[in-house]
Amino acid sequence: MTSDLLKDRQQGKKMKKLLLTALLSVFFVGCASKNLDYPRATTFPYSTQQKMQAAAHWNILAANEAKLISSKLSGSPLIHISCKSSGCGANGMNNSPFAEAYREFLTSHLVNNGASVAIHKESGAYDLEYHVQVVTHNDRDGLPARPGALSATAAAAFGIYKAANDFSNPAQAVIPLAVLGDLALYNAVETSTSNTEVLVTTKITKGNRVITSNSSVYYFNAGDASHYNNKSSSTSKNFSVTNVN
């Protein structure tokens, strides 16, 4: 028993020395130079972005936009849904699966919010335009692990190690395994971050005035790009962004 205590104390002293060395290293590296030939790249504050993986998500987007539009227009406005982006087909409409569904979802939610939707362009009606732009990133930096992930993994691994060496109660190994399982469930809210995004802009105009405009950005899986690109036009707005060092 005494020998085990001595070993633990020695290991504790070693860990303190390693921690002190690491802290000093960080301090000296930070003080090494205050002059740079060009700005150092920094990341943005932590944020999240939703990922579209179902038509139900398109419906949620349309519901939010219809609610926003209805809050900006008083009474029972008459709205004509059009498409004036470069991705429109010969009939003046974007024919991608997303655009077709989005148009129908918008119509339903606008009517449910008290607006009238004109099938054909009428005098005095508001114009509702929407633009769909696909962006593909070809060279992006990977995302770091969440804060605390490494500490939790190390603590769980140490717990398994201690339990494996304590033959009197090997069932203790279940505890760190449960911690790892909870960590995995906690992170389950986050899905894979793809390199493809879709920008959807919905605006209301009347004459030469923009009454309201709102843009939303979502991730989507690269294999679903055909959902957002116009089927009948090769001029759909599909942008590729490359990181050039």
How would the blueprint of this fold be written?
Elements: H1 2-30, E1 51-52, H2 55-72, E2 78-82, H3 97-112, E3 116-118, E4 126-137, H4 149-165, H5 174-186, E5 196-206, E6 209-220, E7 238-241
Parallel strand pairs: 1-6, 2-3, 2-4, 4-7
Antiparallel strand pairs: 4-5, 5-6
Helix pairs in contact: 2-3, 4-5
Which structural class best describes the helix and strand composition? alpha/beta
Largest sheet: 7 strands, mixed
Mean pLDDT: 75
Range of strand content: 15-25%
Question: What does this 3D model show about the protein?
Answer:
This protein has 245 residues and is of the alpha/beta class. The chain folds into 2 domains: 51-137 and 196-215 and 223-241, Rossmann fold; 148-194, no CATH class. Helix content is 38%, strand content 20%. Strands 1, 2, 3, 4, 5, 6 and 7 form a 7-stranded mixed beta sheet that branches. A hairpin with a 2-residue loop joins strand 5 (196-206) and strand 6 (209-220). The model is unreliable at 233-245 (pLDDT under 50).
Quick recap:
The protein is α/β, with parallel strands linked by helices and 245 residues long. It has helices at residues 2-30, 55-72, 97-112, 149-165, 174-186, and strands at 51-52, 78-82, 116-118, 126-137, 196-206, 209-220, 238-241.
Key traits:
single chain, 245 residues, alpha/beta, Rossmann fold, seven-stranded mixed beta sheet, 5 helices, 38% helix, elongated, disordered C terminus
